[in-house]
Write a structure and sequence with these properties.
Blueprint lengths: L15 H12 L2 H4 L2 H8 L3 H25 L6 H8 L2 H30 L8 H15 L4 H31 L22 H15 L5 H5 L6 H30 L11 H9 L4 H34 L16 H11 L1 H8 L4 H34 L12 H17 L6 H24 L10
Helix pairs in contact: 1-8, 1-11, 1-13, 3-9, 4-9, 4-11, 4-16, 4-17, 5-6, 5-16, 6-7, 6-13, 6-14, 6-15, 6-16, 6-18, 7-13, 7-15, 8-11, 8-13, 9-16, 9-17, 12-13, 13-14, 16-17, 16-18
Family: Belongs to the amino acid-polyamine-organocation (APC) superfamily. Amino acid transporter (AAT) (TC 2.A.3.1) family.
Main location: membrane
Subcellular location: Cell inner membrane
Length: 459
């Protein structure tokens, strides 16, 4: 289908390695390197269990999205599916919530970039560094999708290799000591027990952990530009979930084994704290490069997704037509620039509330990503009902459907309930319903205004 506006439309230029690393780039970022401080503080060493449980639920959500993506690869992913299988209202809410979600998460990634830079240059205000990276990443997102995929591939590869090296190095310290006495595994229970705050602490830690997994659904967004979605999407989904679990569980397990959980602190990256305390020459500087790269990589992935989501919403008639324009490289340039400008408000937040912006942003991002996952699961239920009514079969069916879909929905409802117990997250329970209500009102206003034209969705 020809695109609206200028340019040549989105192009299928992403291979399997690009798609996997874009999703890894989005998922392995601030939630692991920076936000893990809070989850460790809540659950202690039992945070490893939180990541295992959360990862299992994320796998179910990804399989639900993957089934729809293989059946009908679309720009905008689940927004287009919600529009088609549920209702125009659901497509509107899903698309704009996702855009809001990853604008907010992009702000979280960008807000900590300045703090990582301050590790070397404490005299440089955090907002200045954030502004510089905002401009650079926006420029990357205006090139061809294949070039963007290559950039994100190498950014994600840096942190993945570094995480693997950190896990191996940590295991050597635990088992052999590398020239000194082995550290052993006593830190897992020697400071108040494996779950020092009991079941309540584990459950509260689970809330933060779920935010950490936000970003894996980027695989669905890439389906519209995947070279061979029927082959690449299943491989990417099955592969990326396992790798994320290895990197998350492995990294967190090494962190809480090497260092007493109650001394990791709540400021800065726990990884840098650990290796600085161990006195390994240059390790803290190397790790700070890694966490900085991770945040930039995640921000890069989210800006990519937001530009494509605005493109899809415009094609549905749920956003201004101009947002469906692409440049000569096939990038939805206006959607990218609008998303970048909104993300840039974090620079102002860092200036006005230095050191506190991340906490508030993460709380709002968590409720927003939960809304996204709920919409994916409910849309999947309706998608499967449509397939059954039409006598069609799925090429990549979700295992255990519909029981597993309902289990995932019940789990997400529990996460929302748990947010009420955490002072840091209660604000999200106020912002979330207000945001959904605003979206419903906005859709009703758009419906009444009526553009008089049918949607045009790429296929």
């Amino acid at each position: 289908m020809a695109e609206r506006g200028s340019g040549a439309g989105l192009r299928r230029g992403l291979g399997n390695r690009h798609i996997q690393f874009i999703a890894l780039g989005g998922a392995i970022g601030t939630g692991l390197f920076y936000g893990s401080s809070e989850s460790i503080g809540q659950a202690g060493p039992a945070v490893v269990v939180c990541y295992l449980v959360g990862g299992a639920v994320i796998f179910l959500i990804m399989r639900a999205l993957g089934e729809m993506s293989v059946h009908r690869p679309r720009p905008g992913s689940f927004s287009a599916y919600a529009y088609e299988y549920w209702s125009p209202r659901a497509g509107f809410v899903a698309g704009w919530n996702y855009w809001f979600d990853y604008t907010v998460v992009s702000m979280a990634e960008l807000s900590v970039v300045g703090e990582y830079v301050q590790f070397w240059a404490p005299q440089v205000p955090a907002w200045v560094s954030s502004a510089v990276f905002l401009v650079v990443v926006t420029a990357v997102n205006l090139v061809t999708v294949k070039a963007y995929g290559e950039v994100e591939f190498w950014l994600a590869l840096v942190k993945i290799v570094a995480i693997g090296g950190m896990i191996v190095g940590g295991l050597l310290l635990i088992c052999t000591g590398i020239g000194g006495p082995p550290i052993g595994v006593a830190n897992l229970w020697a400071h108040g027990g494996f779950a020092p705050h009991g079941l309540r602490g584990v459950l509260l830690g689970l809330v933060v952990v779920m935010f950490s997994f936000g970003g894996v659904e980027l695989i669905g967004v890439t389906a519209g530009e995947a070279g061979d979605p029927a082959r690449t999407i299943p491989r990417a989904i099955n592969g990326v979930v396992g790798r994320i679990l290895i990197f998350y569980v492995g990294t967190i397990a090494v962190m809480v084994t090497l260092h007493p959980w109650d001394r990791l602190g709540s400021a800065g990256s726990p990884l840098v704290t650990i290796f600085s305390g161990l006195g390994i020459a240059g390790a803290a500087h190397i790790l700070n490069v890694v966490v900085l790269t991770a945040a930039v990589s995640a921000f890069n992935s989210f800006l990519y997704a937001n530009g494509r989501m605005l493109y899809s919403l415009a094609q549905q008639g749920n956003a201004p037509d101009a947002l469906a324009s692409t440049n000569r490289h096939g990038s939805p340039w206006l959607g990218v620039l609008v998303s970048a400008a909104c993300t840039g408000t974090t620079v102002l937040l860092d200036y006005l509330f230095p050191g506190r912006a991340f906490v508030y942003i993460m709380a709002v991002a968590t409720i927003s990503v939960v809304i996204t996952w709920v919409l994916i699961l409910v849309t999947h239920l309706k998608f499967r009902a449509r397939l059954a009514a039409d006598g069609q079969r799925s090429d990549f069916p979700m295992p255990g459907h519909p029981v597993t879909t309902w289990i995932a929905l019940a789990f997400l409802a529990g996460v929302v309930a748990l947010m009420a117990l955490s002072p840091s997250y209660r604000i999200a329970l106020v912002v979330g319903p207000i945001w959904v209500a605003l979206l419903l009102v906005a859709h009703e206003l758009r419906r009444r205004a009526g553009s008089g034209r049918p949607p045009r969705i790429d296929g």
